[in-house]
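lol ok so funny story. i was supposed to be doing the assay writeup but got distracted and ended up predicting the structure for this chain instead. priorities right. anyway since i did it might as well share w the group, maybe its usefull for someone
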Amino acid sequence: MSSDSAVEPTAHSWHTLEVQRVLDMLASSADQGLSADEVRTRIAQHGPNVLAEGRKRGPMRILLAQFTDVMVLVLIGAALVASFLGEPEDIVAIVAVVVLNAVLGFAQEYRAERAVSALKAMATPAARARRSAVDAIVPSEELVPGDIVLLEAGSIVPADLRLLTAHRLRVDEAMLTGESQPVEKTIDPIAKPDLALGDKRNMAYKGTTVVYGRGLGIVIATGMGTELGRIAALLRDEDETRTPLQKRLSRFGRNLAVAVLTLCAVILIAGLLRGEDPVRMFMTALSLAVAAIPEALPAVVTISLAFGARKMVRQHALIRRLPAVETLGSVTYICTDKTGTLTENRMRVETVQAGDLPTAPAPAGAAGGALALIFEAVALNNDATRGPDGELSGDPTETALYRAAASAGRDKSEVEGRLPRVAELPFSSERARMTTVHRDGDSFIAYSKGAPERVLASCIDRFTTGGTKALDRQAALADAERMALSGLRVLGVAMRRLTSLPSRLEDVESEQTFLGLVGLMDPPRREAPDAVALCQTAGIRVVMITGDHPGTARAIAGQLGIAAVEDAVITGAELTAMSDEDLDARVQHLRVYARVDAEDKLRIVKALHQRGEYVAMTGDGVNDAPALRRADIGIAMGMNGTDVAREASDMVLLDDNFATIVNAVREGRRIYDNIRRFVRYSLSTNSGEILTLFIAPFIGLPLPLLPIHILWMNLVTDGLPGLALAAEPPERNIMSRPPRRPAESIFADGLWQHASWVGLLMAGLALGMQAWAIHIGDAHWQSMTFTVLTLSSLSHVLAVRSERESLFQQGITTNRPLLGAILLTFGLQMATLYVPAFSRQFKTTPLTGFELLGCIGVASVVFVAVEAEKWLIRSGRLYGTRPRQ
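and the output, tada:
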């Protein structure tokens, strides 16, 4: 065969062409295949059958990116300032924080770069190909357009194929289409050029799995030209979105840097105008610049996220990127697949309508009469098998029918011993039915099952409790339609008794007796309804996005409480017909999408982003990977999901349990609350220090603190208790409040007001103590001012553990790390006063008992004032808030 006559393989709708036309266009032969020389020529033309990795960030680039965040740049600047001041302790602390943040960020982001690599790894290592009339095992990367590939049960399709033969061939395409049922394949051309992947039944796609039968196909696309390659390109081209935390902290860092530099400049100028020593004022201003930047913030964020991630692993949620923990607290939408996520991914017989009996649940015990016949029929007309270990294998529908028949007293092995199979007409998509013939003594009995309309068309009567009666086809079809609208997959079952086998086996599918209908369903997970309800209580909207039939999607969504019966179900075809503007206008009101593909999922996520929503996307297949990458947080299945989905995700559900997402959301909200606690605490403390130094000259007081005092308070009082706030447990009813508004500032809900008045209060208390001590001639006035500010910070951190609840409601021991940090910090502060080596370094003097008690009493005012603020918040009298239940 010569490649000169072969055409570009991606240029045609191969499913519309006759088999021979495809062979001619690709210059190949079903019997001979390609020659070795032709294979080499086509590899040179089309390249290897592998997935390109796309643009890839190297380790050094990822590492350097960790130092580009505004807060990190501010910290590096602070380290330079500390080095100018000759303060090695501060340099070490800041550098340690920057390095810790960079290392952890690098580790997480490096793993995210492996998503496309996982797609590449899905390519099968070998394939059975026919070359020069010989069938042989060849490396899959050497396949070329025109190659003839042999398929059998268990094979992974190595390239995109146009099928040439199909003998009861069924392929599991769930990874590409989301369809939970294996697809029955055919070889006939399909006239419609524009079809969804799942409807191109004469095609087989790279990466899908053959679950039954055998077939022969010709390669029409390889590598990045395949449907799997197209998804790889989508995944490669989708940039990751920044998390809400990253956006808020970046904005916070920029604003804080400007404010700090402005204040320090004012203090420096004011001191110089008063005639203060220029060197001392310059050092004081630089010390304030270092102190005002909460360099512990990145460490608090990282430690909070790391502790949260470790806790979530114990709750069956594996976090791949640390910021994803906090992102969950901002999620307003969860877009979830149905099969295997909300459902068990295990077909089950739900209802049976036998003879003239009303539709009833599938019986769990022995069945008689009409029920006995219908269960005997589905036991015998069944290709599922039970292995030595007792496990069933085969098509999910047939294994479900096997189980139902066995539970009704009609085990396949037992009835097949009495009625052995002697002939069969296999299922095909054209016939939409399957018939088996069994010997019954000197006669035969044929059983058929399949699409109700096909089975009913061959029936002349109906079996009832009173014998056979006339068949009302319209009534039976109405029953089947009613069952289908409830989300069931409906099969019709019929039989015919024969004295001998006809010359044409197809004739057994005529003059049959209708036995009834069987309805099957992939049932919802038991935990799913409660999980959906909890999401809705937390203000999170749940949206089902599935490749399944619209009727099934509607029924499952109704059972789970995702959508009401009257809510619209949008199909992929309808979605394609919508403009982006129409989708943007409707997306917030849609709860169920059916028959969608990878591009549809991406459009939905992007439309929600256009409306300002934060989106979590769950998925398990390759087709979910681009949407998982695009979503604010991608959640993959750990048990049944693909490696591609897991690598593209931010979080993996180790138990594939939708309810685990609710626990993750709770943890995300707790972590963000703790980060806000630290920001509230550090800003209040730092503003207290700045205002103390800023106000003192204007009221005629000498500089109250030395630079080393400022750096000490920044290092010890901010650092130790601030880090311990990361261990704060969640507040009660944390899941009863709505998600944070996506555009919400980190200063929302009164945080900046709190930091402002508490900072003023701390400065007022410190300056008041300074003025009083100077007035009475106390030589310890600077040590007392230093101590009041330090203890005021500890007083504040006790009260700031909650924005609403009193410390007495929470309990003082519910955060033991914080209690330990407070006691340690208090001890270190006492060491600066009473340990000679420390006091010489800090230029302090020991306080008397009366002076120390006075400092403790003054500092306690902060605790009382913040508790009063929380009482006003709870009563709805402050910051425009409403009391919470």
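Residues 658-695 form the longest helix (38 residues). The radius of gyration is 36 Å.
back to the writeup now i swear
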